């Protein structure tokens, strides 16, 4: 399966100012697979180490973190001759060895000729930065997310369709109706399968949604285990309550996060640490309201008003126990949830493309789902789950703030009219 991260990794390798790289991301998003694939394609050999499966590795880094000491030992442990510039060193599950993270500073300063990449989940919550030195300024950092819908289409062998979608997006030309319907079918499949690589792989090999759901359930179980393993004992129950409640929040017409929906009388002070844990772990994203859509957007963020989305739309469906057929055939029984599910889908695509997103509301209740800065311009995005593109809130925003253009995402084909760029949901990756 093709991952866009490979291009970033190749650029990192070629960069003369390259530093040791930390590849972070939620569990099961494909960090290890991507790094091993990159190593096989771009290096003469790969020296791979996993702190979860090799206890002796921890002891090695506890004894000494000088590269001159480590390299001969790592060569012996891996059975690989580690050669400068020609061997990729991969340290996996780095969150389990804080001293190994510290060692990256010395690889940067004293041994930059060695190419070293580390991968880890839960780096934001599992690492105690009070007790050790994080290599600030001495590392490159990159976050890997689940496969977006473009990567899903490529995995399904639809390279030509991806090219045609990109062309239609750039030129605002509708796709031929047959291709449009085909792409919509893939989009609905993606809503069910999501972008976790193991789920995508099983779907492509078997087309069995029950097997895909089983895989999703296993991933969700691992997330719950992490909440117990890497969390303060007082916060475990609260963290699980918040995570379980996100699907409830997304089922509401107003998807803004409401503490009262977690439990009666709930307050921000009681659950803010739980929300922060979920965000730092990479399995939940917050989108804050922006009071005034001006540059820089972050300056106008309302810290008390936000929406919550999960990291993968397939896992969202699994958490809600939605059967595949209801999504594939757009069952009316999902009407209350469709809007939130599709918003979650778009949010994941924007994050994968590196956007920091916000949403906007007017004093009279108009709401635009996403506000982003694209190519130096502040652009509003309105999301509709079907082909009804009467976006009253978007019109209010346009009349109030006069953006250069706006984007409407729906099941409608490509087009551009009255300053509004119509983009089918399956083309969200183009934004």
Automatic annotation (TrEMBL):
Chain ranges of the AAA domain: 18-153
Entry-linked InterPro entries: AAA_14, DUF4143, P-loop_NTPase
Annotated protein name in UniProt: Putative ATPase (AAA+ superfamily)
Pfam families, alphabetized: AAA_14, DUF4143
Top-level taxon: Bacteria
Domain DUF4143: 225-385
Gene source species: Desulfitobacterium dichloroeliminans (strain LMG P-21439 / DCA1)
